[in-house]
Write a structure and sequence with these properties.
The protein is an alpha+beta fold. Helix content is about 45%, strand content about 10%.
């Protein structure tokens, strides 16, 4: 009964028709205790699937509100119970000497004190949660790891943007879409939806706002901008807000780490890794999980939404900017406090030492009470240092491997670990070292001789036409002979057949988002495999598309990155066609100058590696299929996007490969007649960003081939009539165990 009443009750909370919508996704019932986020989310998805857009919005918003409220309750209860002196850790665990109590445990041993403190803390947390959340407390509203991951990926906003669109609330639809896209910049369908929203007359530029990004990022960026304009007085409040917000965000994340113990996966259970022999093994295992989670929290706080790596030196850099700003406005005491805080992280930082000496000299007589800031950071709040930024020191610091009790500050401020802490942290240190030693893609790096790429080119029958020097740049190359004329013809026919069938993939045959004078047609590898499976296009073309993309990846890796594996991150067959009657006096480009992994600013020559750019892309490739068109040449420029440094004419089998960063801004001249087709490919060093659709397409084509072979072996039936499509679809679904993927589009 409650399940049936929940949508009706929340529907009553929606504003009446015609009333203004609140700015952003605000809570629906202020002050009300949170409900179970998992049930709300599930009901919201059911309403969404049924097309009940208003109840879906109400339920999804309430799920977001309840999830945030649960986090606040955990944070507040954790802080209040931590202040309870009865729940403090035994002194022996904090490094104080323990009286000699003999070889065995006694009533005065540290075990009894530890368990007494743990029970006192657990009772405090239970009572606090019951007061804030009602009977049952946090146990009644426990959220599983799958749902937490969905909220972390901001999946509710993907559904919200669609529901708002159906309700004609375009401003909120654009905000929800932007919020999802910031955290998922590789989501192709959302990227297309964002472009559609930008073309709508009812959507303002201010609509594209992020509803989930922690406020410390906005304050941090504003403070740096003001400091760059020499407005230190205005920058100080924003920089201080950013610092306090960063620490608060980290503490909130750390509070979430003290939830239920995560269950081990099935593979680990088979290996015996999940077995726990008793009470203390269980305590140690859960404590290790908490410490690992806390370590990730520090990194997550320093990582912008949608980015893969933390901002280097995030917390120390904030302290550096603060001491510089205070010095500029004459607040020398505050400048000294902040520079001393920097030295807690880097005791041998020469720049910080010079700044400290300068401030002390300007201040004159010494002030005994002046010291570093009181930051809520103990040894365990800091991080496990690793030998490189790629193995993720959470604040992006670089240095030798050091455990949390290293000499990062005065000895009196560093906690000495007890027995349980030592065993847990040794496990953490080992796992950190293992991660540090783990090679890319779980394969050992095999050094290649400098002539390796030449051997590969010779083996593939490919010739190097132009190198970086001839193209007046760096990390650029033109290679010919990757495709025969017959192979170009097969891929051109594939693109034509897919477009003729109305395949809605990529740019979907609409006018280009870059120019109104051309029409785009796009085809992804997965869509090609699905069309081939359905018999809409030939399987030869879909298979060749996969084969050629792997061929390009192999050559690109051999030429640019022989010692580090490259992975395909996206493959797209794109055709640009000139629209007849719209080419006279045309002055625009087919594709404006841009870089592939950063947002290019031609005015300053800088390129910002942040969303909406695909920041994980490392190398790009364009494999051309034809040359029977006018215009459409590729060109490279300087970072100002004006000075052309090289120009390449497309032809069948020609590959232009280059690094994806600011060193290679490029664009496409207008296609003024005919149809220009090319295979665009992007590669990444990060295996977590490899193209999953490529793997799915390969599996799909393999399944189709196996079915064809099975059908050939079967005896022909007496009834020659073909199998109904619906029955064939059911058989395919039963065999694969999953239904074909369907994309919802606006």
């Amino acid at each position: 009964m409650l399940r049936l009443l929940r949508p009706l009750l929340l529907l009553l909370l929606l504003p009446p028709p015609g009333s203004p919508e609140p700015p952003g996704l605000t809570q629906l019932s202020p002050g009300a205790p949170p409900q179970a986020p998992d049930l709300l989310y599930a009901d919201g998805l059911r309403a969404y699937a049924a097309g009940a857009w208003a109840p879906a919005v109400a339920l999804l918003r309430e799920a977001l509100r309840s999830q945030a409220a649960l986090g606040r309750v955990r944070l507040d209860c954790g802080a209040s119970c931590a202040a309870d002196p009865g729940a403090a850790l035994p002194a022996v665990l904090l490094g104080a000497p323990e009286p000699d109590s003999g070889p065995g445990p006694t009533q005065g041993s540290w075990e009894r004190q530890l368990l007494r403190a743990a029970l006192r803390r657990a009772d405090c947390l239970t009572q606090c949660a019951a007061r804030r959340l009602g009977p049952g407390g946090a146990a009644r509203l426990r959220v599983g790891s799958a749902l937490r991951d969905a909220f972390r990926r901001r999946e509710p906003y993907n559904y919200l943007q669609r529901a708002y669109y159906q309700l004609k609330k375009l401003d909120l639809a654009a905000a929800a879409a932007h919020t999802f896209f910031v955290a998922n910049p590789m989501h192709l369908q959302m990227r297309e939806d964002m472009a559609k929203y930008r073309r709508m007359s009812g959507v303002r530029p201010q609509s594209f706002r992020d509803l989930e990004t922690p406020p410390h990022w906005a304050a941090y960026d504003t403070g740096l901008e003001l400091l760059g304009r020499q407005e230190a007085g205005l920058a100080l409040p924003r920089l201080e807000e950013a610092l306090q917000g960063s620490l608060a965000q980290m503490e909130s994340c750390r509070a979430d780490c003290e939830g239920p113990e995560e269950q081990q996966g099935a593979e680990e259970e088979e290996d015996g890794a999940a077995s726990q022999g008793g009470l203390y093994e269980a305590i140690a295992g859960h404590w290790i999980q908490v410490l690992q989670c806390r370590q990730r929290c520090v990194g997550e706080t320093a990582t912008r939404p949608g980015r893969s790596f933390p901002v280097p030196d995030f917390l120390p850099n904030q302290l550096r900017r603060l001491h510089e700003a205070h010095a500029q406005v004459g607040n020398l005491s505050q400048a000294i406090e902040n520079v001393l805080s920097v030295l807690l992280f880097y005791p041998e930082d020469e720049a910080a030492k010079r700044a400290l000496n300068q401030y002390q000299a300007q201040l004159g007589e010494p002030r005994p009470g002046l010291g570093p800031r009181e930051l809520p950071l103990t040894a365990h709040h800091l991080t496990l240092r690793t030998s490189s930024a790629s193995s993720s020191d959470p604040w992006g610091r670089r240095g030798s491997s050091t455990m949390p009790w290293s000499t990062w500050g005065p000895a009196s401020r560093i906690l000495t670990p007890g027995p349980l802490q030592l065993s847990s942290l040794r496990h953490l240190e080992k796992s950190s070292e293992d991660q540090e030693k783990r090679p890319w893609d779980h394969e050992p790096v095999k050094p290649k001789p400098l002539t390796y790429w030449k051997d590969v080119l010779l083996l593939e029958g490919v010739t190097l036409t132009q190198d970086s020097r001839q193209l007046n740049g760096s990390e650029r190359a033109v290679l010919d002979g990757l495709l025969t004329p017959a192979e170009c013809g097969v891929l051109l026919q594939l693109a034509k057949d897919a477009a003729g069938a109305g395949a809605r993939s990529g740019y979907r045959g609409r006018r280009s988002p870059h120019t109104p004078h051309e029409r785009f047609e796009g085809l992804t590898v997965l869509k090609a495999a699905q069309l081939a499976r359905a018999g809409t296009v030939g399987s030869q073309g879909a298979k060749l598309l996969l084969e050629v993309s792997e061929r390009v990846r192999t050559l690109t890796q051999a030429y640019f990155s022989p010692e580090r594996p490259l992975h395909l991150s996206f493959t797209h067959l794109v055709c640009r066609s000139a629209i007849e009657g719209e080419q006279e006096q045309r002055m625009d480009l087919s594709h404006p100058v841009h870089a592939d992994n950063c947002v290019l600013d031609p005015d300053t020559g800088e390129c910002w590696r942040e969303p909406p750019a695909y920041t994980y892309r490392d190398y790009s490739g364009l494999l051309y299929l034809n040359d029977d068109f006018q215009g459409g040449d590729l060109f490279f420029t300087e970072p100002n996007a004006l000075t052309v440094t090289a120009r390449v004419r497309p032809r069948c089998g020609r590959l232009v490969a280059f690094s994806s960063g600011v060193e290679n801004p490029h664009g496409v001249w207008a296609v003024t007649r005919g149809r220009r087709c090319a295979l665009a490919l992007w590669h990444t060093w990060a295996p977590e960003h490899r193209e999953q659709e490529w793997i799915e397409a390969k599996e799909l084509l393999q399944e189709s081939q196996e079915e064809e072979e099975e059908e050939e072996e079967e005896m022909p039936s007496k009834d020659p009539s073909p199998e109904p499509p619906s029955r064939r679809h059911q058989r395919v679904q039963d065999k694969t165990g999953r239904a074909p993927r369907v994309r919802e589009e606006l």
